[in-house]
Structures are given as C-alpha cells and as structure tokens.
C-alpha cells in the first residue's frame, strides 16, 4: 500500500489526517514543518505528500517548490484554512508552483481520500 | 583633467571593456555589452556635471565575475536571467539622476550624481548584498562581488581599482576632510545640538519598505539609522549608539533621524512626489526627558510640520504597563506633526485597551531579535493581532526574517509587514509601488537556496 508523508505543524490536525489515512490502509509518515518534511522525503521517499501551508521554518509553498524540483513526478496535495484571515492566496501559489490538488480546511475526510486516490491513480 | 575629457575617457573605457575585470577567461570572446546609447551619454554628462573636479570619485563599478563561477556550465542559459536580476537590484537603489550601464560581461558602471563618496560606496554595498541574496541566497556571497572605484592616473587615463570591502569605510575616513559632514546634516540646524560623545558621521540611514497588505502596496518607508561594524555587517536602530541606554544619546539620535526624514520629505516634495509616506521611531526617553522633548518638538514643529501628511511617528521602548494617560500625552505631543502615531510593543502583549483611546492608529512589534522559535512566533502573532483587532487597532510587524514567518504574518492578519524576507533596504525612500507576493518565492524558483 502507498506511503504518504503528512507535513502539518498542528499536532491535532496531523493526527486526524494520519488516522483518516491509516483507516484507508495507507502507511503514514509525519513531519511537523517543511524542513523536516523535505529531509524525510529525501531520506525515504513517500508516494504522495500532503502538506499544510502556514508552518514554521519552511512554509508549504516553499516546501512544494523544493519538493517539485527534487521529485518532479511526486503527487502533492496542499491543504490550508488561510489562517485567521482565511487568506487563500497561498493555496493559489501552491497550485501554481506544483501542487496537484488543493483542499481548503476544514474539509471532509472523503474529500482528502478522493484526492489521494486520484493523484495516485494518475501516477500509475 | 577637464570634465569633458573625463567623460570621454569614461566612454572610451566602454569600448575597451573587454579588457576590464570580469572577463578573466583567456581568449574570452568580446562581451555581449550593450553599447551605451546617446541617451546614456547625455545622462552621464548630466550626472557628472553635478559635481566639481571630483567627478571620478562618484563612478563605481560592480563586478560579479567571482559569482559567475558558481553557475559553471549553466551560465550560458542563465545569464539573461542573472542580468535581469542584477539590473533590478541596481535600479531599486538608484535615484532618478543616477546613471548605470552594463560595462563588461559581468560588470556594471554606476554613477551616483548626488551622493557623497561614502554614501555611494554604502549604496554599492547594499546593491552587492541584494545581488548575492537574490542570485545565490546568501549574504556571505557578497564577498565574491567586487566593488571598484575610479581613479585618474597621472597620465590622464582612467583606471578602475578594486576597493576591498573591508576597507571601503576606513579608506574614506582616511582621506575625509576634517569638516566634512553628510549632506543632509550640512543643511540641518540640528548639527550644533548634537552631543560630542557620539561619532555622528559614522551613522547613516537606510529606508525599509513597509508593505500595506490591503492594497498590496509598498507605500511607507521606515527611516532606520545604521552603522557599519565590519565589511558586511551593520548594527541598526539605537544599537548604533555607544550607549543605547543613555537618554541624551537616544534623544540626539532621534533628532538626527528627524533631520534625515525632514531632508527626504523636502526632497520628495520638491520632486513633486505625491506618494510615499515616511515613518520614524521616537524613543520614550526622548519625550520623557524635558530638555530632549522640548528640543525635539521644537524641531518637529519647524521642519517636519510642513510634511505632516507624509509622516508616521512610531513610539518605541514604551515602559511596561504604560498608563493610558501617558499614552494620550505622548500621542498628543506628536499628532500635530503626524499623519498617524503608532506604537511598538512586545509580541507577547495581548491587551491594548488604552491604545485606541489614546489616539494610536496601529500597534506593532519587531520580531527580528526576540529569540523565540518560529512556531512560538506564529502562535504569538495570532494572539497579538486578535487582541489588537478587538480594539479596532491596525497592526504592523517589523523584522520578518523568513518566508514562513511572512506567510504566517499575512495569514495572522497583520495590516503592515516589513523585513528582509520581503524586501531589501535602500538608501533613500522610493516611490509607492505595488508588491507581488510571487517575489517572496522568486529566489527559490530561480534556483537559489
């Protein structure tokens, strides 16, 4: 079964996503920010990455730019609620710079699972 | 040498540019230099005409041949983009009367028409740092870019000589006439008010652009005193003082900053610039100290009040728990000379009850040296903005030092943001201009670190 890397600084959100994906049978790796996520992906590449946008040390857009350079065919899904201001500009950048799908928080579990299935199917 | 023959020597140098530094490869082809246009020659003549016989000292060359080696076999396909970035860096720091042109394969000639030699060399250093940051993602790489000054030889020929970056400032100090002062101080009445315990001539000013997020416009420029400590480092703000805790030194620095802002505001008014606001810090001690307050307010009333519509005063170093009555006093003192008064607080402050009633337009914080990790900063930013919004106060944040903090600050809802992640400083305030958030990621997209 595919291995998915979840990059999300909020622990509760990260654990929720992990639970959803493990229930679908995926293996899940976790990182708390973009720096950690990139290092993990380079050390042991996952089949797909789900990344938040607003994170310390390296935000999601910068992470996507660097992931895309190192792993040109890696499916990437960006998620964000836009912070206090619900600013979704950064999700737009995420798509522009290489995310295959974007999801606006809060999103239902089915939406995330469907997005992952589509991305993985496209890769095969 | 007459000015016309100096100009001719300079123009002749363009024709011999293939022999200049920057084309160090043996047998290298003639560089793809765009020959100077007639318009350039006219502008160069005009720029040099603003000075006397020392015109040569205003001409500088920036050569990034040392940096080009990093591109190795990617140079051919990258050079157009590299030159585009270099041109942008140069243009950001030039005034309208200044002139530049590509000189060699990896070099650019710059003429600063109105700056002192010291100011021109500082400006070259700022340009070089921005180039290094944008091209390879590191300030340290600035050492690989040469700054050259122009020297007239005894035989009347022009020669470019490398200025070792560590010597740029001491070189000028060695040859500076005893009475020389920065231009704005010469014209300013504050000169005789300043105490003698500080070397005021070693202090220069830069302007940091502040992004207003609502319109995505950079329209405010924050005046910041800086002092070089070595080749590639500065201290800024009140750290430029030998003793930042000395109220007299602090008051004098605030007075000097006000003089610089008055000078720039006057220049902007003369240039017919309707855009662009200027912000300057005012230390609590300056206004708390009776003598300092009196001098400062008198200067403001006489020289800053004509430009009040363009000015924003930022109250800094306010004591913890400063009561509302005190804030009202401070704001009232500055309001006649200001478009707005704002106040800086620690990021951990989450209660701004007295501020709105005191007449403050915005509250903000400087996060450059808090010592907090980014995760903590991001949490505190949210709480800070939430607290300010409860009191209908605008918010601003200084010192945003990374892309991730910039993203977080925007998402938190700050109304105004500045920091080197956003934009570099410059030697003078610019025009108001739109900002594209894509710029944040440009370095990563261009292949930097």
Layout: helices, strands, pairs:
The complex is a heterodimer of chains A (124) and B (449).
Chain A: E1 3-7, H1 11-23, E2 27-31, H2 34-43, E3 48-52, H3 60-70, E4 76-80, H4 89-96, E5 101-104, H5 109-123
Parallel strand pairs in A: 1-2, 1-3, 3-4, 4-5
Helix pairs in contact in A: 2-3, 3-4
Chain B: H1 3-15, H2 38-49, E1 59-63, H3 65-68, H4 75-93, E2 99-104, E3 107-111, H5 117-136, E4 146-152, E5 158-162, H6 168-175, H7 183-186, E6 204-212, E7 217-230, E8 233-236, H8 247-270, E9 277-283, H9 284-288, H10 290-304, E10 311-316, H11 324-334, E11 340-344, H12 353-357, E12 362-366, H13 374-390, E13 394-398, H14 403-412, E14 416-417, E15 433-434, H15 438-445
Parallel strand pairs in B: 7-9, 9-10, 10-11, 11-12, 12-13, 13-14
Antiparallel strand pairs in B: 1-3, 1-4, 2-3, 4-5, 6-7, 6-14, 7-8, 7-15
Helix pairs in contact in B: 1-2, 4-5, 8-10, 13-14
Q: How would you briefly describe this protein structure?
A:
The complex is a heterodimer of chains A (124) and B (449). Chain A is of the alpha/beta class and 124 residues long.
Shape, principal axes of CA atoms of chain A: globular
Oligomeric state as shown: heterodimer
Percent range for β-strand residues of chain B: 15-25%
β-sheet strand percentage of chain A: 15-25%
Describe this protein's structure.
The complex is a heterodimer of chains A (124) and B (449). Chain A has 124 residues and is α/β, with parallel strands linked by helices. Chain A has one domain (3-121): Response regulator (Rossmann fold). Chain A has 5 helices and 5 strands; from the N terminus they run βαβαβαβαβα. Chain A has helices at residues 11-23, 34-43, 60-70, 89-96, 109-123, and strands at 3-7, 27-31, 48-52, 76-80, 101-104. Chain A has a 5-stranded parallel beta sheet, sandwiched between helices. In chain A, α3 (60-70) links the parallel β3 and β4. In chain A, α3 runs parallel beside α4 (89-96). The mean pLDDT of chain A is 94. By secondary structure, chain B is an alpha/beta fold. In chain B, the strands form 2 sheets. An 8-stranded mixed β-barrel of chain B has the order 6-7-9-10-11-12-13-14, surrounded by 4 helices. In chain B, strands 2-3-1-4-5 form a 5-stranded antiparallel beta sheet. In chain B, α14 (403-412) links the parallel β13 (394-398) and β14 (416-417). The longest helix of chain B is centred in the middle third of the chain and has 24 residues, at 247-270. The radius of gyration of chain B is 23 Å and the shape is globular.
């Amino acid at each position: 079964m595919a291995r998915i890397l979840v990059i999300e600084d909020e622990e509760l959100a990260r654990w929720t996503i992990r639970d959803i994906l493990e229930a679908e049978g995926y293996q899940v790796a976790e990182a708390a920010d973009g720096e950690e996520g990139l290092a993990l992906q380079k050390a042991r590449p996952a089949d797909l990455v789900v990344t938040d946008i607003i994170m310390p040390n390296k935000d999601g857009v910068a992470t996507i730019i660097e992931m895309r350079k190192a792993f040109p065919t890696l499916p990437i899904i960006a998620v964000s609620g836009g912070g206090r201001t619900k600013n979704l500009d950064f999700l737009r950048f995420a798509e522009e710079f290489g995310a295959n799908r974007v999801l606006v928080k809060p999103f239902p579990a089915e939406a995330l699972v469907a997005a992952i299935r589509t991305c993985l199917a496209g890769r095969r | 040498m007459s000015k016309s023959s100096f100009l001719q020597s300079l123009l002749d140098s363009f024709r011999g540019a293939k022999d200049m530094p920057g084309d160090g490869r043996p047998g290298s082809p003639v560089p793809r230099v765009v020959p100077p246009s007639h318009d350039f020659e006219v502008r160069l003549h005009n720029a040099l005409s603003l000075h006397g016989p020392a015109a040569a000292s205003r001409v500088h060359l920036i050569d990034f041949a040392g940096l080009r080696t990093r591109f190795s076999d990617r140079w051919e396909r990258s050079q157009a983009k590299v030159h585009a970035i270099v041109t942008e860096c140069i243009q950001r720091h030039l005034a309208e009367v200044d002139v530049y042109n590509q000189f060699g394969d990896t070099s650019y000639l710059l003429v600063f028409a109105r700056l002192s030699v010291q100011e021109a060399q500082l400006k070259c250093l700022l340009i070089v740092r921005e180039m290094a940051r944008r091209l390879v993602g590191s300030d340290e790489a600035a050492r690989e870019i040469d700054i050259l000054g122009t020297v007239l030889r005894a035989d009347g020929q022009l020669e470019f000589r490398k200025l070792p970056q560590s010597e740029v400032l001491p070189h000028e100090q060695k040859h500076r006439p005893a009475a020389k002062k920065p231009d704005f101080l010469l014209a300013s009445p504050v000169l005789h008010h300043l105490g003698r315990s500080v070397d005021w001539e070693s202090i220069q000013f830069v302007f940091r652009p502040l992004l207003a997020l609502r319109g995505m416009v950079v329209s405010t420029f924050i005046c910041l005193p800086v002092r070089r400590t070595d080749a590639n480092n500065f201290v800024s703000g009140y750290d430029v003082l030998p003793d930042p805790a000395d109220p007299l030194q602090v008051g004098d620095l605030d007075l000097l900053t006000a003089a610089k802002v008055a000078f720039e505001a006057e220049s902007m008014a003369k240039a017919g610039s309707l855009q662009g606001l200027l912000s300057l810090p005012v230390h609590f001690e300056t206004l708390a100290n009776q003598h300092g307050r009196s001098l400062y307010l008198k200067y403001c009333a006489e020289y800053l009040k004509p430009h009040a519509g363009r000015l924003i005063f930022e109250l800094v170093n306010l004591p913890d728990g400063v009561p509302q009555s005190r804030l009202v006093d401070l704001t009232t003192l500055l309001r006649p000379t200001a478009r707005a008064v704002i106040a800086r607080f620690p990021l951990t402050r989450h209660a701004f009850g007295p501020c709105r009633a005191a007449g403050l337009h915005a509250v903000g914080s400087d996060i450059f040296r808090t010592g907090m990790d980014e995760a903590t900063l991001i949490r505190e930013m949210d709480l800070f903005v939430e607290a300010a919004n409860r009191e209908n106060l605008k918010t601003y944040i200084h010192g945003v030092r990374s892309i991730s903090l910039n993203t977080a600050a925007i998402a938190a809802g700050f109304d105004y943001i500045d920091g080197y992640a956003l934009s570099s400083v410059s030697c003078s305030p610019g025009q108001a201009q739109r900002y594209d958030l894509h710029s944040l990621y440009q370095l990563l997209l261009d292949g930097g670190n």
